[in-house]
Design brief:
The protein is an alpha+beta fold. The chain has twelve helices and 16 strands. Helix 3 (92-103) links the parallel strand 5 (81-85) and strand 6 (114-122). Pathway: Lipid metabolism; Glycerolipid metabolism; triacylglycerol biosynthesis. Belongs to the long-chain O-acyltransferase family.
Length: 472
């Protein structure tokens, strides 16, 4: 293999194969800044911090049974960074329309799979609209990469970071390399055997724990495969490939935390409950019947240690199916049901199971993955991500980031993506909806804020009446 070419992992290949005209596999972001960013300084920041990841300078070579990353011999930053402006006194509505246009358009597979559009003339500042293909990395990793471009102060000390050196060709003949692989595999197997023996010596019940874990994994795999398809609702309509993007005005994170403390739950429980209430309101306002068994959303679950720096990209996450009790109209009861569902999932192996399935599908023929993808996508009505961001404000090339929004793509016949992102004491909530689904994204954003407010007021009222003791 060429020193400039590396094989794509099976998991990343799975996400590449999921790309369809209806659902391009792009992770997208809209970043709004307080002041215009000098373009020259933005380019310098990208060169020094973004392009240090070799993957952003590589294109995809698809040989059918094999897929490779190859250094783009004609790479030029200007092919990926574009400057545009919104007309007149354009505001949030116009920016959402522009984001919808770009999120409905596939990336150019002749080049490295990412684009950044610098949007001038937006509310006395500027915005960046970023699109990156999912096969490069998962959403959590890419959010961390984008945040690595920022600083805590407007005046950073930028230092040029050398691009990583290309790997050298392995020495020796094919026979000697094959022999080395055998030796490496034997050593790995021997190490695993020693680890198993030592574990038994330290913990006599280790084999029982191992068997119990294996049984739990098998049970979760069976549950995933046997789970019924999603009920027929307006959220599962045929897709058109035209995306509509919207985001709500941010919530105060401290208010969300107060609500969680009052209810004795987590911030994640509160936000999932607010999302549930928003979908319930959507069904009610449009006179649609509400499924009496709830609906499910696919939630990415990170499998990469968050306390370690990102040195290599790629996808390291699984998916869990979370049931949202949209049939429960009482805010407190809805919260308790969401909390119970989440606690049950935290004890499961569903994320590890779905990651392993993606790895398996990526190694097999395309038709196998398509069948499996159709099967899994029929078991969720939406994708929902919840990513924690920095607790303090950050600056990119000297300009303060005032509102960040991120979306992960949907797969198969799923046409709704919801995203929750905490940043600098706020909680941002956004949505992308395929035009084939009869749901107004702006309305759903309003419903989300109303749903949270109803839950917060209900929690305060019950706490004041002595319904439950407020956490300290």
């Amino acid at each position: 293999m060429s020193a400039k070419r590396t094989a794509m992992t099976s998991v990343d290949r799975s996400w590449l194969r999921m790309d369809t005209p209806e659902n391009p596999m792009m992770i997208s972001a809209v970043l709004v800044f307080e002041h215009p960013i000098p373009l020259k300084r933005l380019k310098r920041t990208l060169e020094e911090r973004f392009l240090k990841f070799r993957r952003f300078r590589q294109r995809i070579i698809d040989k059918g049974d094999k897929v490779y990353w190859e250094d783009d011999p004609l790479f030029d930053l200007d092919n990926h960074l574009h400057t545009i402006a919104l007309p007149g006194k354009a505001g949030k509505r116009e920016l959402q329309a522009l984001a919808s246009d770009f999120n409905s358009t596939a990336l150019d597979f002749r080049r490295p799979l990412w684009q950044i559009h610098y949007i001038d003339n937006y509310e006395n500042g500027c915005a960046l609209l970023i699109r990156i293909h999912h096969c490069i990395a998962d959403g959590i990793s890419l959010v961390r990469v984008l945040l690595s471009l920022t600083d805590r102060t407007p005046e950073p000390k930028l230092e040029r970071v050398a691009h990583p050196k290309l790997p050298t060709k392995p020495n020796g003949t094919a026979a000697s390399r094959f022999l080395h692989r055998i030796v490496d595999s034997t050593q790995a197997a021997w190490g695993q055997a020693n680890l198993f023996v030592n574990s038994i010596r330290k913990e006599p019940d280790y084999p029982l724990k191992l068997a119990t874990t294996a049984g739990g994994i098998f049970l979760d795999l069976a549950k995933l495969g046997l789970a019924p398809f999603e009920p027929k609702t307006s959220l599962k309509s045929p897709l058109l490939g035209r995306k509509q993007v919207a985001w709500a005005e941010p919530l105060e994170l401290e208010t969300v935390k107060q609500c969680a403390r009052t209810l004795g739950g987590t911030v994640n429980d509160v936000l999932l409950c607010a999302a549930t209430g928003a979908l319930t309101r959507h069904f009610t306002e449009h006179g649609q019947s509400i499924p009496d068994c709830g609906i499910r959303v696919a939630v990415p679950f990170n499998l990469r240690p968050l306390d370690q720096p990102i040195e290599t990209l790629g996808n390291q996450f699984g998916l869990v199916l979370v049931c949202l009790p949209v049939e429960v109209t009482d805010p407190i009861m809805c919260f308790r049901q969401v909390q119970e569902n989440m606690n049950r999932l935290k004890r499961s192996y569903q994320a590890q199971v779905t990651y392993s399935l993606l790895d398996l599908f990526g190694r097999g023929p395309d038709i196998l993955e398509r069948r499996a993808l159709d099967l899994l996508s029929n078991k969720a009505s939406a994708v929902l991500t919840n990513v924690p961001g920095p607790r303090h404000a950050v600056y990119l090339a000297g300009s303060k980031l005032i509102q960040p929004m991120f979306w992960v793509p949907q797969s198969g016949n799923i046409g709704i993506g919801m995203s929750i992102f905490s940043y600098a004491g706020t909680v941002q909530f956004g949505i992308t909806v395929d035009k084939g689904i009869k749901a107004d994204p702006g309305e759903v954003m309003d419903y989300f804020r109303d749903s949270f407010e109803n839950l917060h007021q209900a929690a305060l009222a019950k706490a004041g009446a002595g319904g439950f003791r407020q956490a300290s």
